[in-house]
């Protein structure tokens, strides 16, 4: 222990409980992302079997999914189903941030994922009984269970040493990209199999329930609560994050609502996150419809080409992570410069590609697929650019901050299919999709301009408690008039001319 105290910044081992927590977050985020996004392919599969003008069910025997019923829902009804998840999710984020801070991320994330998994298992039965209205209700309740983002931010803030924050945080966030790939490719393949579209819901439910068991056994809110962590690793994490045991534990710290809502960096981050969400949600929800309507791809080809952009996105996350880690270790970029550089890549590169895509004809199928893949793939830079910025601005209130931001981004996700439903009356008309792509590109461009001007990775003053801020001000006053004086009369050892108070030696 003595050696460890002499070098508090040196990790005791390369792999430990902090890496296990990041891996659990990765799988949990992937599972919850599948619950969120598999509706895109489920919708295409469910409405692919009839052509009547009223909502009916029919039995199809010619398709690969046997006698699974299909539905003929209007574009408006489809838009309601696609957006209903975000009605609940937008309402859940703010309370989730508070509950996460109050009860810990482990309990909140467990119950949220468990509820979403059980609702996923009930989805086919609800649709059989009451059609699209039941589907909307189930999706809304699943949205209310979506507490992933506030919990992940708080959990990372409790477990990630400052030097490893980008590395561990980005790895955990790639679970979102993995979930995207599985939601697109896996759902498409299952829908084209004998399991049919109900198999999409059952498989997602099974994955979520398995993760809940692992999280219950291996998850821990913070290093001091972990059962299998070594003392050396615990000292390394706690010492680095300055989270020694206090009389006032973090969960009782007063939340600085005024500081958060009047913070210019927080508002700039909100603009960047909403812009990124606008672009990504459009592709996540509408890409299968675009590929089916404009390019006339069948279900299995649609699955492959819909998943390909998100597979590239997943791969690029690790490329971006390696580059960012190298830059930070070499001190070539400050953390603020790194966040802004990656956010620019994540927003401006897709904006340029979407503008190009808007003017490419559907007869150039290969070029369209390449542009669609690139527009989504390069956007994964947002993981390092803006998604981790909440932890930079306020480690103590990362969960609350993430909940607030995600509430607004979920409103954007809610509006996305509704806006597309208004603009695209016929999914086979490329001209209608052009308007969608141009609007998305404009939003991406504007969001990044705001973040470049007012964004930062500097921890904000309201991150600390009022007592800590008062104590800091008092200490600063003690040294306002201190001067360093050197004189022979002060060298007899009878007095002290200068006092040094180093809180972080």
UniProtKB/TrEMBL annotation:
Single annotated GO MF: symporter activity
Record membrane topology: Multi-pass membrane protein
Record's subcellular location: Membrane
GO cellular component terms listed in the entry, alphabetical order: membrane
Alphabetized UniProt keyword annotations: Ion transport, Membrane, Sodium, Sodium transport, Symport, Transmembrane, Transmembrane helix, Transport
Biological process terms in GO annotation: monoatomic anion transport; sodium ion transport
Presence of keyword Ion transport: yes
Residue ranges of every copy of the Major facilitator superfamily (MFS) profile domain listed in the record: 24-459
UniProt keyword Transport, yes or no: yes
Annotated TM spans: 171-193, 199-218, 303-323, 343-360, 367-386, 398-424, 436-457
InterPro entries: MFS, MFS_dom, MFS_Na/Anion_cotransporter, MFS_trans_sf
Protein family membership: Belongs to the major facilitator superfamily. Sodium/anion cotransporter family.
Function, in words: May be an inorganic phosphate cotransporter.
Name of protein: Putative inorganic phosphate cotransporter
Protein's organism: Drosophila kikkawai (Fruit fly)
Top-level taxonomy: Eukaryota, Metazoa, Ecdysozoa, Arthropoda, Hexapoda
Name of the gene encoding the protein in the UniProt record: LOC108077620
